[in-house]
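User: Predict the full complex structure for these chains.
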Amino acid sequence: RKEVEQDPGPFNVPEGATVAFNCTYSNSASQSFFWYRQDCRKEPKLLMSVYSSGNEDGRFTAQLNRASQYISLLIRDSKLSDSATYLCVAGGSGGSYIPTFGRGTSLIVHP
Amino acid sequence: DTGVSQNPRHKITKRGQNVTFRCDPISEHNRLYWYRQTLGQGPEFLTYFQNEAQLEKSRLLSDRFSAERPKGSFSTLEIQRTEQGDSAMYLCASSLADGGDTQYFGPGTRLTVL
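Assistant: Here is the predicted structure of the two-chain assembly.
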């Protein structure tokens, strides 16, 4: 079983739709969580950190469920420019920090 | 530009040759990470430094891979006796250890081994 699992998609949605991604992690000692966005042949760029209390940034909302060991990302009112791969990360375990990325979920927003 | 920089951006080499990549982190960041990414996969952690100390290197792919950060600033990743399977994007990221460890990535070095 992979340490961090994501549905690779692709998720094909029309502009204006709401779309949600989940990501599960296996290491219960993980302490920090993030969502990154990666465009084709570019480096990952931080989208948002994920906290137990949940956090929102404009159209994007991230949640962490420690009991079930998953994090989620909700995108409201999808734009064409949201088309990208979304990577989740879980990290922080004991004295040595090893961040583990999922393989990413591909989102395609069409007109 | 004060972001993470990596050089070279592209490297083509023949099997068996040694290659070295450089990463310059954001200046005030004390942590520096190296990752490998292949098509359709997320970044795969290789190693990281806090200042000049290499705190985790168990995930380096083989003994052909090594990394240094001699003065706690820039870092180099060396691959000896390259193999075709080493072809990938090599990403560097930096962060502040007490800043929630949010990582910022460089543009990567794309390695092609012929």
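Chain B touches chain A through 22 residues (CB under 8 Å).
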